[in-house]
Amino acid sequence: MRELSSAPEPFSWRVDGTDLLLRRSGGWDSADSLLGCVRAVTSVLRPEDG
Fold it and tell me: Does position 50 have pLDDT exceeding 70, yes or no?
């Protein structure tokens, strides 16, 4: 869960079928911030081997 705590902004997320849904109260500060949060969640759902 260290990956989630290192996300650039606090957010909530859930999986709905094949969709990954991310939500942040007040919206995202930037596209880079949103992508950083997506990366944090996907690293938990699909960890790299190694």
Answer: no
Q: What is the DSSP string of 1-21?
A: -HHHHTSSS--EEEEETTEEE
Residues 6+ apart with CB under 8 A from 23: 11, 12, 13
Q: CA quadruple 42, 38, 10, 27: dihedral positive or negative?
A: negative
Structure tokens at 10: 């606090």
4's CB contacts (< 8 A; 6+ apart) are 40, 41, 44
Alpha helices in the chain (DSSP H): 2-5, 31-45
Is the model's pTM score more than 0.85?
Answer: no
What is the spatial distance between Cα 1 and Cα 44, in angstroms, rounded to a whole number? 7
